[in-house]
Amino acid sequence: MAHQDLKTDIQNILDDDMLPRDEKIKLLETMRVNARSEMRAATESAMVDDNETGDDLALLDRALETLSADTASIEDGGAATL
User: Fold this and answer.
1) Which residues of 26-59 are buried (b: 16+ CB within 10 A; e: fewer)?
2) Is 10 exposed, middle or buried (CB count within 10 Å of its CB: 0-12, 13-18, 19+)?
């Protein structure tokens, strides 16, 4: 996904008044898991372009923080992070 598209997708989720807060968090967390997977793949393969993957993860973390979501995960503190 292009970096700008992700920004737009995140903003659309945050701005959607029809989505309950929990659903917004669920959607953003799914996007975060996908971004982490891309980042992990980028560290394991020279075939993946990871120029914006870290930025994407930061954008998603900030979006989740605006919803007061707990962004900590099991992977964040372990030795096997990325």
Assistant:
1) ebbbebbeebbebbbebeeeeeeebebbeebbeb
2) buried
Please give the pLDDT value at position 28.
Answer: 96
Residue 78 gets which letter from DSSP?
A: S
List pLDDT tens digits, range 11-52: 999 999 999 999 999 999 999 999 888 888 777 766 555 556
Contact criterion met (CB below 8 Å) for 59 and 66: no
The DSSP secondary structure of 24-67, one letter per residue, reads: HHHHHHHHHHHHHHHHHHHHH-TTS--TTHHHHHHHHHHHHHHT
Contact 27, 35 (CB under 8 A): no
Chain mean position to CA 63:
9
> pTM to 2 decimals?
0.75
- Please state, as a whole number, how many other Cβ atoms lie within 10 Å of the Cβ of residue 17: 5
